[in-house]
Design goal:
- The protein has six helices and two strands.
- The protein is mostly helical.
- Keywords: Membrane, Transmembrane, Transmembrane helix.
C-alpha cells in the first residue's frame, strides 16, 4: 500500500511537471509564429544576397511547427485530466484503467521525442544559414536579415523562443519516460496480484473439495461395545 501511494504521488508530480513543460512548448512557439508572420522557422533555408546582404529565405513546411504545437496541447490536456483523476482517486485503479495509462504514456513518449527531434534538427538547419554571415546564431537574433515587402518579420527573440521550446520538448520526453515506466510497473503489479488471488481461490476450492471427498469416503466406525451387545442378543 505504501508503494502504491509513492507511485501515485510520483505520477501526480510527473504530470504537474509535464503541464509546465507543455507550456514551454506552446507559448514560445506561438510567439515565434506570430513574429514570423505565420512562417515556420524550423528547417527553413535560404541564401544571402550579395547586392543588399539580406537573407533570401525559403520557408519550410508549417507542419514542422504544427506537430510540436499539437504535441504540446496533447500533453497539456492529458496532464490536466490525469492530475484531476489521480487527486480524486480513493481506490486502486482497475486493470483497464492501468492499461489505458500505459497506452497514453506510450503516446506521450512517441509524440514528445518526435517533437524534440523536429525542433532540434530544424533549429540547427536554420542556424546553419545564420552562421554563414554571423559568428553565431544567437548574434543574428534581432538583426535585419529578412526583407519582406508585405510582411514585417521580427527576429529579435527567435533564439530564446526556440531554445525554450527545445527545452520543453526534451524535458517532456524525459518526464514521459518516467510516467510511462510508473504506469507499466503499476500494471504489472496489478496483474501479479490478480494472478495471486486467482491461484489462492483455486487452491482454496481444491482443499474444500478434497475435504468433502475424504469425508464421504471414510467408512463409519463401529464401537466394540455396540458389537458385543449385538452378539449377546
Amino acid at each position: 500500500m505504501a508503494l502504491a501511494n509513492v507511485l501515485l504521488l510520483s505520477q501526480i508530480a510527473g504530470h504537474v511537471i509535464l503541464f509546465i513543460l507543455s507550456l514551454c512548448i506552446i507559448v514560445p512557439l506561438f510567439i515565434n509564429l506570430d513574429q514570423f508572420c505565420g512562417h515556420c522557422l524550423l528547417f527553413t533555408t535560404g541564401k544571402w544576397r550579395e547586392e543588399d546582404g539580406m537573407f533570401d529565405v525559403q520557408w519550410a513546411s508549417s507542419g514542422f511547427c504544427n506537430f510540436p504545437l499539437i504535441t504540446g496541447f496533447f500533453l497539456l490536456v492529458i496532464s490536466v485530466v490525469q492530475i484531476y483523476r489521480y487527486a480524486r482517486m480513493k481506490e486502486e485503479a482497475s486493470f483497464i484503467a492501468l492499461f489505458i495509462d500505459v497506452v497514453l504514456g506510450i503516446w506521450m513518449l512517441a509524440m514528445s521525442i518526435l517533437s524534440a527531434i523536429f525542433i532540434t534538427l530544424g533549429f540547427i538547419v536554420w542556424c546553419d544559414g545564420m552562421t554563414e554571415r554571423f559568428p553565431s546564431c544567437e548574434i543574428s537574433a534581432g538583426q535585419n536579415i529578412i526583407r519582406g515587402d508585405t510582411e514585417k518579420i521580427n527576429t529579435s527573440g527567435f533564439y530564446i523562443e526556440m531554445g525554450t521550446t527545445q527545452f520543453g520538448a526534451w524535458g517532456s520526453f524525459a518526464i514521459s519516460v518516467g510516467i510511462g515506466v510508473i504506469a507499466l510497473l503499476k500494471l504489472i503489479d496489478n496483474h501479479q496480484v490478480r494472478n495471486i488471488k486467482v491461484s489462492m481461490y483455486l487452491e482454496r476450492q481444491r482443499l474444500v473439495n478434497q475435504q468433502q471427498h475424504d469425508g464421504r469416503s471414510t467408512p463409519p466406525i463401529v464401537s466394540h461395545a455396540s458389537s458385543d451387545s449385538e452378539q449377546n442378543k
